[in-house]
């Protein structure tokens, strides 16, 4: 029985190709593994950086927050909101005002809507969101009650900040407050 040269060449090329793929397969796998490890290390470094940045952010005094916000007048100033968030802690108030109030606007009673922070990290985003929600519910007992029933302004702000986009933030805000005018402004401020 005789095998043609073309069949032998095809068989030889197939075997050579299979051996070449077998030899390079582990190299590709090793490269993929190295890339995966590098991505995991980068993600871990980002988490550590975020934790370190958040450590410098003063903690909002959660106990009684809704009552303090409810006692504010409608359309409170940034100063009033910060005082409600950090009662009796002048250092925390000063740090928050430095982040929340635009340059030179601290004494002018600027509203938190539209405030642009410098060097945002998660904790400051939550602080800004608490301020936006606080300005929204200030002086409105019904909205304060709704926020309290949901678990509080701070809990709601943390959830809203974690939402992926504005539509998700709006859905959370509707779940907390219902269909109320002004929710879109809070969703934008908490983003």
Q: Helix and strand layout, with pairings?
A:
Blueprint: H1 5-55, H2 65-70, H3 78-85, H4 90-100, H5 122-137, H6 141-150, H7 153-162, H8 166-177, H9 183-189
Report what the structure shows.
The longest helix has 51 residues, at 5-55. The chain is mostly helical and 191 residues long. The chain is elongated. Helix 3 (78-85) crosses helix 4 (90-100) and helix 7 (153-162) packs antiparallel against helix 8 (166-177). It is built from nine helices and no strands. The protein has two domains: 1-55; 65-189, no CATH class.
Write a short abstract of this structure.
Residues 1-22 form the signal peptide. The protein is an all-alpha fold and 191 residues long.
Oligomer: single chain
The biggest sheet, with number of strands, parallel, antiparallel or mixed sense and barrel status, is: none
Structural class: mainly alpha
**Using DSSP, what is the number of strands?**
0
| Low-pLDDT segments, ≥5 res | 43-53, 103-119
Number of helices: 9
Average pLDDT number: 75
Overall geometry: elongated
**Computed Rg:** 28 Å
N- and C-termini, Cα separation: 77 Å
Q: Give the total of domains.
A: 2
The share of residues in extended strands comes to under 5%
Summary tags:
191 residues, mainly alpha, 2 domains, 0% strand
């Amino acid at each position: 029985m005789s095998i043609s040269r073309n069949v032998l060449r095809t068989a030889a090329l197939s075997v050579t190709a299979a051996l070449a793929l077998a030899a390079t397969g582990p190299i590709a796998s090793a490269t993929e593994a190295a890339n995966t490890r590098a991505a995991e290390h980068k993600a871990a470094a980002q988490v550590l950086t975020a934790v370190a940045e958040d450590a410098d952010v003063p903690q909002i005094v959660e106990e009684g927050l809704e009552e303090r916000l409810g006692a504010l007048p409608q359309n409170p100033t940034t100063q009033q909101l910060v005082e409600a968030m950090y009662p009796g802690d002048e250092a925390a108030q000063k740090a928050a005002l430095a982040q929340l109030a635009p340059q030179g606007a601290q004494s002018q009673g600027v509203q938190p809507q539209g405030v642009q922070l410098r060097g945002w990290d998660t904790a400051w985003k939550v602080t800004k969101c608490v301020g936006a929600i606080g300005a929204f519910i200030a002086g409105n007992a019904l909205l304060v009650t709704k926020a309290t029933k949901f678990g509080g302004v701070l809990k709601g702000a943390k959830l809203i900040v974690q939402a992926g986009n504005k539509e998700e933030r709006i859905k959370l805000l509707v779940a907390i407050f219902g269909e109320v005018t002004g929710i879109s402004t809070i969703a934008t401020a908490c983003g």
